[in-house]
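Comment on this:
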Amino acid sequence: MRTHHREPQTLGEGTLDRLARILAARNIDPATIAAPAEEPENISPLEALSSGMPPRYRAAVADHSEVLAWVRTVAEAAVAPNQGARRQVTTGPSLLMAGVVGAGKTHQAYGAVRLLVQSGVGVRWRATTSADLYAGLRPRPGSDSERELAAVSRCPLLIIDDLGAAKASDWTEEVTYRLINRRYNYELPTLITTNLAIRDLRAHLGDRVTSRLAQMTTQVTFEQVDRRRHRLAA
């Protein structure tokens, strides 16, 4: 079967004039028509990770011994979905970091994610404060709170910042339990920070949540020094 090669065709002046009249009739400025997108430049996994982080934590470095141990354990548990593919975080232990405001807990959490990526492990992750979590899950028109809760619950790596800071209620306790229980059952690594003392968690989070946290996390108390105030005083 013979095929015919056609030379690329250009638009003649008549065609361009008709196109201009059509755009003018529709009040469309030709200058606003987007040009074809250029091919994106290759970026490193760490650059891609940093672009999704809050600017304050894009250079965060994890240096706490318990956090470094957690990173090593999670990295060792990472598996490749198929031969030759990059290893991905799928399961692993969780870490609960307690201490006063400004002790560096959030900095360490973001630094831990950066360190995982630097070690060559792929990470699909999310980060939220407990207050933002509850705000996003409150039932409201046009929102599927159950679907959002399922998405957060299934995320391979989750940072929950300031757990226990939001006003407690039966509803927040139920949401927290469902989230933590799901991650407990599927052994999904979770980095949790709280300004509460570990001995006070039960009073603020309830028995069911505290019981799950005790079983699924390594709990570490940060030094009782507000590093932000210390830097300002230096």
Remarks:
- The chain has a mean pLDDT of 85.
- The chain has ten helices and five strands.
